[in-house]
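Notes, p. 3: input format for complexes.
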Amino acid sequence: MKVALIGSGGREHAIAYKLIDSKNLENLFIIPGNPGTAKLGTNVDLNINDNQAILEFCKKMQIDLVVIGPENPLVNGLSDVLRANSVKVFGPSLSAARIESEKTFAKGLMKKYGIPTADYIEFNSTQYNAAIEFLQTASYPKVIKADGLAAGKGVIICDSFGLAQAALDSIFKDKIFGKSGDKIVIEDFLVGEEASIFAITDGEKYFLLPSAQDHKRIGDNDTGKNTGGMGAYSPAPIVTKKIIEQVEKEIIVPTLNALKNEGCVFTGCLYCGLMLTSDGPKVVEFNCRFGDPETQAVLPLLNGDFLDLLYSAAIGSLSRDSIQYNGGSSVCIIAASKGYPDTYYTGYRISGIEEIEDPEIVIFHSGTKLQANRLVTNGGRVLGVTSVLSNNDILAAQQKAYRAIQKIKFTDIYFRTDIASKALKIK
Ligand code: AMP
Ligand code: GLY
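Output follows (427 residues plus adenosine monophosphate):
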C-alpha cells in the first residue's frame, strides 16, 4: 500500500514509526514531515491546508490511504475533498470534525444524548450583557471556553466574577481568540484526574488504544501556563478496567451513535479527554484526531499491524483482530525551547541523539529542522524522548526516559522533571 501521512509533529513521527512495521506498506510519504520522519519515508513539501495540491499528489502517486494527523486539515475539509475523489482517508469529515472545532456542537450533542460532561451555558458576542448577568450570580470556579479552535489555549479557568469578567472582555471585546471566540461556552469546573482515551473507529466499531495521561501545564506539579502537552505516559493506572468499561458504555458508544444519528459518521481517531470525577468519568473535550504527545507514548505499546487497523477503519469495516496492547509501558518527556508556550528562539544545534543507543528509547521529532545538514531547533516543542518497556513498570520507564533526556543538548532546553510522577502516586 502507498500511504500519505499529513503533518509534521511528534504525533506524525510516532504514526510513521508504527506504519513502517506493516507488511502491507509499500511506500510512505509524509506531507510535509520533519527530519525524524525523513528517516522512515519520503517527506513531501506541500502545504497541508492546500486540499487541491494534496489531492493532485494522491492521484499522481496512486495513494491507497491518507492518514490525517492534525486538526486543521480536517477542519479545512481535506478528508471530504479526498473522499469525493475516491481516495481512502483515515480521518473524519468536516461535519464530524466539529466535535473538536465547535465546542457548542460538542456540548449540544452531549446534552442531547445524555453523555456525561460538565453542565454549561452558551453565549455569543452579541449577548455580552446576558453573559455578565449569568456570571454575577454563578458559583465559582467557572470555565470559559472559546467555541472554535484556539491551539489549545482557548480555555480560561476563572476563580471569581472579576476574573470571569476580564476573560469575557478579552474574548468578546479584545477578540484574543479572533472569530473562534465569537461564541463561548461557560461550564462548571470539574474536579478529578484527567486521562486521555483514543478510539480508532469506522464510525460504529472501535478499538481502544492504551490509556494515557498528558501533562498540559508548562511547570512541574501542574503549574504555569497551558501548553500543547509537556509529556505523557501510558498506560495510566488510574484508568482501571472498570473505568474503561464505563467510558465505553457511557461515552464512546453513545457518542459514535449520536454522531451517526446526526448524519455525521465519525471515521478516524476519537480523542476523549476525560475528567475522572467522584461522580464517574466526564468528557472535558473531544478531539477529532490523535493527541500529541499522548500518541508518542501510546503507539509504541501496540503489537500488530497498525496500517491494517487504520485502513480497515477508513474503508468502514474495522478489523481489531490483528492488533493489541503489548503489556508494556512508556513515558514520553518533551524537550522544549525555553519560553514556550510564549516566545522562544529557534535555530540552536541539537546534539546527543546519536549517543543514545538504547533500544528501549525512541526519540520523536516535533520542532526540528536540518540546516546545512545539521539538526537544529525549530519549534516550542522540539523532541519527544520516549522510553518503551515491554513490561508495565512506569517507574522504570520514567527513570529510563529521564536518563536519556540528560544526554540531549541544545541551548535553552527545558523539560518538566515530574512527567509520570502522578502515576506513581496512585500505585
Ligand atoms: P480543553 O482544551 O477543553 O481540553 O481544556 C484544557 C484544559 O483545561 C483541560 O485539559 C483541563 O485541565 C482544563 N479544563 C477544561 N475544562 C475543564 C472543566 N470543566 N473543569 C476543570 N478543568 C477543565
Ligand atoms: N495532548 C492534547 C491534545 O492533543 O490536544
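The chain is about 30% helix and 30% strand.
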